[in-house]
Amino acid sequence: MRILMIAPEPFFQPRGTPFSEYYRARALTELGHEVDMVTYPIGEDVSIPGLRIFRTPTLPGVRNVPIGPSLTKIPLDGMIFASSVRRLMSERYDLLDCHEEAGLMGVLLSRLFGVPTVYDMHSSLPEQLGNFRYTGSALLRPLFALSERWTIRGSAAVIVICPYLEKVVAKVDPERPCFVIENSPLAEARQSVREEEIAELKKSHGLEDSVVIGYTGTFEAYQGIDLLLDAVHWVTGRDDRARLLMVGGHADQIRQAQEAVREKGLEGKVVFAGQRPPVEMPVYLAATDILVSPRSRGHNTPLKIYSYLRAGKPIVATRLLTHTQVLDDEVAELTAAEPEAFGRGILTLIRDPQRAKSLANQARRRAEERYSYEHYLEKTRRALDFLSRTAESEKAVPRQAPSR
């Protein structure tokens, strides 16, 4: 098929949805489809055979797009819609692959141009407002919920990244075809890291004789950074070898976290590496002794969890649905979302190397058995086989409005 992917994100940047869009495009092209992507003017160019990227015009003064809902996205999404119309008027497509809020655009474009839409659903739009504490408006959340319902009901099928979102789709429309394809692939990840690389990284960050607790990802409020810092304060009071290595965050978020480190008396015990390119992440993960995910709210599985599993390191995570869709007591130390409980989980693995090793081995096995790139590609194949049949049938039968 010829697929128009509508990706209202800065592509490519090393964060959740752009990663998902990258691997979706890669899988689609590897399966023999041609993909044209309409996306923001912000981000790094990537080269994938079979993928063409069409960027919207730049907006004066807009150089960055924050994660989650924002006013910045409104004019950018308007240009995304206009650019998508131009693509559809100039070329023939068999399918629209629409990510996040572009799903609603896809439903409208589908009716205008007769091309079926698959909604690539990375999160529940109304829940995003709460996760990012974006607004307390009593009107905006119902509008987001209405938009989500229209998008689900108007799409030929929905792709979701975790079982929780599959349930969200079923509540809206139990008959809507829905495919769970976890954000698990790391096709470029190296299978091994040299000991010299690990030693060099530890030396560069002053971590040679430390027990390294690793965190990777964004520093958004829902990630539980304050919980993590309080937990590390509790741990270092009982084992002075413990050091926290934090990879990620924007400059202003890092400054804010550094201020919290000073207030908690953690100077010298927390290292900020900043954002690192994906190619370096295997070395950072290999340099840790324990990997942590302190997320304190939300339902979607963090992208980092699949990297953690594949790294074969013991994991400490909060016992919340955001984690327990993938993690259980066989592969991770799960704790309450509370600083002392999280700290006890970390200290348990420091003091019990055998349990830590067992969890690490089980984690790597879980990744190989359930979340390999081959599994991801096969799930994508199944979804596209269905959508290909849908596209063929819609060429023969006029598209009807979805049932309400």
Give me the count of strands.
13
How far apart the termini lie comes to: 29 Å
Please report the first level of CATH classification, the CATH class of the largest domain. Answer: Alpha Beta
- Distinct helical segment count: 15
> What does the overall shape look like?
globular
CATH superfamily grouping of the largest domain: Glycogen Phosphorylase B
Briefly note the CATH topology name of the largest domain.
Answer: Rossmann fold
CATH architecture of the largest domain: 3-Layer(aba) Sandwich
Query: What percentage of the residues does DSSP assign to strands (E)?
Result: 15-25%
Class from secondary-structure proportions: alpha/beta
List the helices and strands and how they pair.
Blueprint: E1 2-7, H1 16-30, E2 34-39, E3 51-55, H2 73-90, E4 95-99, H3 102-113, E5 117-121, H4 125-131, H5 140-154, E6 157-160, H6 163-172, E7 178-180, H7 195-204, E8 211-216, H8 225-236, E9 242-247, H9 251-263, E10 270-274, H10 281-286, E11 290-293, H11 303-311, E12 315-318, H12 321-324, E13 333-335, H13 339-351, H14 353-370, H15 373-396
Parallel strand pairs: 1-2, 1-4, 2-3, 4-5, 5-6, 6-7, 8-9, 8-11, 9-10, 11-12, 12-13
Note the main attributes of this structure.
alpha/beta; six-stranded parallel beta sheet; globular; Rossmann fold; single chain; seven-stranded parallel beta sheet; 15% strand; 404 residues
Descriptive account of the structure:
The protein is α/β, with parallel strands linked by helices and 404 residues long. The protein is built from 15 helices and 13 strands. It has helices at 16-30, 73-90, 102-113, 125-131, 140-154, 163-172, 195-204, 225-236, 251-263, 281-286, 303-311, 321-324, 339-351, 353-370, 373-396; strands spanning 2-7, 34-39, 51-55, 95-99, 117-121, 157-160, 178-180, 211-216, 242-247, 270-274, 290-293, 315-318, 333-335. The strands form two sheets. The chain has a seven-stranded parallel β-sheet, sandwiched between helices. The protein has a six-stranded parallel β-sheet with strand order 10-9-8-11-12-13, sandwiched between helices. β4 (95-99), α3 and β5 (117-121) form a beta-alpha-beta unit. α2 (73-90) packs parallel to α3 and α3 (102-113) crosses α5 (140-154).
